[in-house]
Description:
mainly alpha, two-stranded antiparallel sheet, two-stranded antiparallel ribbon, 4 strands, elongated
Amino acid sequence: MTDALHPNGRCTCGGEGKCVWCKRVLLLEIDDIVSSLKKSVEPLVKIADAYDANALDNEARKHWGKNYENTNNEDPNDITLYSGRGGKELLTLSDCLKARETVKRLEEYYGTLRTRLS
């Protein structure tokens, strides 16, 4: 990239992150990190969204009953969605809810960071 401050498309601050070039490079790196994190937890976020939409089965349903009049009061930490051999707990509903919250916080922080660096 070249612009008025960087006619050669290079850093002018010695890599201290103070010039437009460094900020652009940092934003690209942050874009990659955020994208990778979001992609890695996307399956968990989908499960949390399905829970809110009452689209999970059995004890993981948010509401139940003929007209969905009953609310599941089970602690999400106690709802095992996937277990491995020997009954080892591998995934709980709580894990999915935490992943979704983390993505929301990451997006908020990322937006703030992009504004500061732009």
